[in-house]
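My main concern about presentation is that the manuscript never shows what a single data entry looks like. An entry of this sort, consisting of the sequence and the corresponding C-alpha coordinates, reads as follows:
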Amino acid sequence: MTTGPTSASGHFDELYAASTDPWDTGTSWYEQRKRAIVQAMLPRQHCGVIFEPGCGSGELTLQLAARCQTLIASDFCEEAVRITRQKTAHLPHVQVRLQVLPEQWPVPAQDVPPFELIVFSELCYYFDAPQMAQMVALAVGGLAPEGHLLACHWKKDFDDRLLATRHLHQLIDAHAHLKRQACYEDEEILIDLWRKTGTSYDP
Protein backbone atom coordinates (compact mmCIF):
# COMPACT_ATOMS: atom_id res chain seq x y z
CA MET A 1 0.00 0.00 0.00
CA THR A 2 3.02 2.27 0.19
CA THR A 3 5.01 3.70 -2.66
CA GLY A 4 5.42 7.07 -4.29
CA PRO A 5 7.84 9.97 -4.53
CA THR A 6 11.14 9.53 -2.78
CA SER A 7 10.45 12.61 -0.65
CA ALA A 8 7.68 10.69 1.16
CA SER A 9 9.89 7.76 2.15
CA GLY A 10 10.73 9.16 5.58
CA HIS A 11 7.06 9.39 6.50
CA PHE A 12 6.42 5.74 5.64
CA ASP A 13 9.63 4.66 7.36
CA GLU A 14 8.27 6.25 10.54
CA LEU A 15 4.93 4.46 10.15
CA TYR A 16 6.63 1.08 9.80
CA ALA A 17 8.99 1.84 12.67
CA ALA A 18 5.92 2.23 14.88
CA SER A 19 4.11 -0.87 13.56
CA THR A 20 4.82 -3.74 11.16
CA ASP A 21 1.22 -3.32 9.95
CA PRO A 22 0.47 0.44 10.01
CA TRP A 23 -2.96 0.11 8.37
CA ASP A 24 -4.06 -3.07 10.19
CA THR A 25 -4.24 -4.88 6.85
CA GLY A 26 -4.08 -8.27 8.52
CA THR A 27 -6.92 -7.74 11.00
CA SER A 28 -9.33 -4.98 9.95
CA TRP A 29 -12.67 -5.99 8.43
CA TYR A 30 -12.33 -3.31 5.75
CA GLU A 31 -9.04 -4.84 4.56
CA GLN A 32 -10.28 -8.43 4.73
CA ARG A 33 -13.46 -7.55 2.84
CA LYS A 34 -11.53 -5.53 0.26
CA ARG A 35 -9.22 -8.42 -0.51
CA ALA A 36 -12.18 -10.78 -0.89
CA ILE A 37 -13.82 -8.42 -3.39
CA VAL A 38 -10.57 -8.00 -5.31
CA GLN A 39 -10.16 -11.78 -5.48
CA ALA A 40 -13.70 -12.16 -6.79
CA MET A 41 -13.16 -9.52 -9.48
CA LEU A 42 -9.98 -11.01 -10.92
CA PRO A 43 -10.78 -12.02 -14.50
CA ARG A 44 -8.86 -15.30 -14.53
CA GLN A 45 -8.48 -18.09 -12.04
CA HIS A 46 -4.75 -18.24 -12.82
CA CYS A 47 -2.38 -15.75 -14.48
CA GLY A 48 1.11 -16.09 -15.85
CA VAL A 49 2.68 -12.94 -14.40
CA ILE A 50 1.15 -10.45 -11.93
CA PHE A 51 2.70 -7.14 -10.86
CA GLU A 52 1.68 -5.60 -7.52
CA PRO A 53 3.37 -2.22 -6.98
CA GLY A 54 2.99 -0.77 -3.51
CA CYS A 55 2.70 -4.14 -1.79
CA GLY A 56 3.01 -2.72 1.74
CA SER A 57 3.06 -5.45 4.39
CA GLY A 58 2.15 -8.18 1.91
CA GLU A 59 -1.34 -9.38 2.88
CA LEU A 60 -2.73 -9.00 -0.64
CA THR A 61 0.58 -10.31 -2.01
CA LEU A 62 -0.04 -13.65 -0.32
CA GLN A 63 -3.46 -13.95 -1.94
CA LEU A 64 -2.26 -12.90 -5.39
CA ALA A 65 0.55 -15.45 -5.15
CA ALA A 66 -2.03 -18.24 -5.25
CA ARG A 67 -3.41 -16.92 -8.54
CA CYS A 68 -0.30 -16.83 -10.75
CA GLN A 69 2.86 -18.49 -12.00
CA THR A 70 5.04 -15.46 -11.22
CA LEU A 71 4.33 -12.53 -8.92
CA ILE A 72 6.46 -9.39 -8.76
CA ALA A 73 5.64 -7.21 -5.76
CA SER A 74 7.40 -3.97 -4.96
CA ASP A 75 7.47 -1.10 -2.51
CA PHE A 76 9.66 1.95 -1.97
CA CYS A 77 9.79 1.42 1.80
CA GLU A 78 12.62 -0.88 2.90
CA GLU A 79 10.74 -2.15 5.95
CA ALA A 80 7.66 -3.01 3.89
CA VAL A 81 9.86 -4.96 1.47
CA ARG A 82 11.52 -6.80 4.36
CA ILE A 83 8.16 -7.75 5.90
CA THR A 84 6.70 -8.95 2.60
CA ARG A 85 9.85 -10.91 1.75
CA GLN A 86 9.59 -12.62 5.12
CA LYS A 87 5.93 -13.49 4.56
CA THR A 88 6.57 -14.89 1.08
CA ALA A 89 9.91 -16.61 1.72
CA HIS A 90 8.25 -20.02 1.24
CA LEU A 91 6.97 -19.03 -2.22
CA PRO A 92 9.75 -19.30 -4.81
CA HIS A 93 7.63 -17.78 -7.59
CA VAL A 94 7.28 -14.47 -5.69
CA GLN A 95 9.83 -11.66 -6.12
CA VAL A 96 9.68 -8.70 -3.75
CA ARG A 97 11.62 -5.67 -4.94
CA LEU A 98 12.65 -2.33 -3.49
CA GLN A 99 11.56 0.12 -6.19
CA VAL A 100 10.69 3.79 -6.41
CA LEU A 101 7.90 4.38 -8.92
CA PRO A 102 7.45 5.56 -11.56
CA GLU A 103 11.23 5.90 -12.03
CA GLN A 104 12.05 2.22 -11.47
CA TRP A 105 9.03 0.63 -13.14
CA PRO A 106 10.02 -2.86 -14.43
CA VAL A 107 10.27 -2.90 -18.22
CA PRO A 108 8.82 -5.95 -20.05
CA ALA A 109 11.21 -7.75 -22.40
CA GLN A 110 14.20 -6.11 -20.67
CA ASP A 111 13.38 -7.11 -17.11
CA VAL A 112 10.25 -9.28 -16.96
CA PRO A 113 7.64 -10.86 -19.26
CA PRO A 114 4.58 -8.74 -20.07
CA PHE A 115 2.13 -8.67 -17.18
CA GLU A 116 -1.22 -10.39 -17.48
CA LEU A 117 -2.46 -8.44 -14.46
CA ILE A 118 -1.35 -5.28 -12.64
CA VAL A 119 -2.93 -4.44 -9.29
CA PHE A 120 -2.97 -0.89 -7.94
CA SER A 121 -4.24 -1.37 -4.39
CA GLU A 122 -4.40 1.64 -2.06
CA LEU A 123 -1.56 3.14 -4.07
CA CYS A 124 -2.36 5.84 -6.58
CA TYR A 125 -3.51 8.64 -4.29
CA TYR A 126 0.11 9.07 -3.22
CA PHE A 127 0.96 10.42 -6.71
CA ASP A 128 0.10 13.77 -8.24
CA ALA A 129 -1.69 14.01 -11.59
CA PRO A 130 1.44 14.08 -13.85
CA GLN A 131 2.96 11.12 -11.98
CA MET A 132 -0.36 9.30 -12.20
CA ALA A 133 -0.50 9.84 -15.95
CA GLN A 134 3.00 8.37 -16.20
CA MET A 135 1.99 5.41 -14.03
CA VAL A 136 -0.99 4.65 -16.26
CA ALA A 137 1.14 4.87 -19.41
CA LEU A 138 3.73 2.53 -17.89
CA ALA A 139 1.04 0.10 -16.78
CA VAL A 140 -0.55 -0.03 -20.23
CA GLY A 141 2.87 -0.41 -21.84
CA GLY A 142 3.70 -3.28 -19.48
CA LEU A 143 0.49 -5.23 -19.97
CA ALA A 144 0.30 -8.17 -22.34
CA PRO A 145 -2.33 -7.92 -25.09
CA GLU A 146 -5.72 -8.43 -23.42
CA GLY A 147 -4.03 -8.02 -20.02
CA HIS A 148 -5.90 -6.44 -17.11
CA LEU A 149 -5.37 -3.54 -14.72
CA LEU A 150 -7.23 -3.48 -11.41
CA ALA A 151 -7.36 -0.39 -9.20
CA CYS A 152 -8.73 -0.44 -5.66
CA HIS A 153 -8.82 2.67 -3.46
CA TRP A 154 -10.43 3.98 -0.29
CA LYS A 155 -12.84 6.85 -1.02
CA LYS A 156 -12.63 8.87 2.20
CA ASP A 157 -10.22 11.76 2.63
CA PHE A 158 -6.95 11.59 4.59
CA ASP A 159 -3.89 13.80 5.09
CA ASP A 160 -1.48 12.02 2.73
CA ARG A 161 -3.84 11.98 -0.25
CA LEU A 162 -2.74 13.88 -3.39
CA LEU A 163 -5.60 12.77 -5.67
CA ALA A 164 -9.23 11.96 -4.96
CA THR A 165 -10.11 8.33 -5.62
CA ARG A 166 -12.74 9.07 -8.27
CA HIS A 167 -10.39 11.47 -10.07
CA LEU A 168 -7.51 9.02 -10.22
CA HIS A 169 -9.80 6.25 -11.50
CA GLN A 170 -11.03 8.67 -14.17
CA LEU A 171 -7.42 9.27 -15.21
CA ILE A 172 -7.01 5.53 -15.71
CA ASP A 173 -10.37 5.24 -17.47
CA ALA A 174 -9.38 7.95 -19.96
CA HIS A 175 -6.50 5.96 -21.46
CA ALA A 176 -7.25 5.04 -25.07
CA HIS A 177 -6.00 1.45 -24.71
CA LEU A 178 -8.03 0.57 -21.60
CA LYS A 179 -11.63 -0.64 -21.60
CA ARG A 180 -13.48 -0.93 -18.30
CA GLN A 181 -14.65 -4.48 -17.62
CA ALA A 182 -16.11 -4.32 -14.10
CA CYS A 183 -16.72 -1.94 -11.21
CA TYR A 184 -17.56 -2.29 -7.53
CA GLU A 185 -18.36 0.71 -5.34
CA ASP A 186 -19.79 1.35 -1.89
CA GLU A 187 -19.49 4.20 0.62
CA GLU A 188 -15.89 3.28 1.48
CA ILE A 189 -14.22 1.84 -1.59
CA LEU A 190 -14.01 1.98 -5.38
CA ILE A 191 -12.63 -0.97 -7.36
CA ASP A 192 -12.36 -0.90 -11.17
CA LEU A 193 -11.07 -3.48 -13.63
CA TRP A 194 -9.87 -2.59 -17.13
CA ARG A 195 -8.71 -4.71 -20.07
CA LYS A 196 -5.99 -3.60 -22.46
CA THR A 197 -7.23 -3.25 -26.02
CA GLY A 198 -5.13 -3.20 -29.18
CA THR A 199 -1.61 -4.56 -29.53
CA SER A 200 0.62 -1.51 -29.10
CA TYR A 201 3.19 -1.59 -26.30
CA ASP A 202 3.85 2.13 -26.56
CA PRO A 203 2.86 4.08 -23.43
In short: The chain has six helices and seven strands. The beta strands are 47-53, 68-75, 94-98, 115-121, 143-154, 178-185, 189-196. The helical segments are 9-18, 29-41, 59-65, 78-87, 129-142, 165-173.
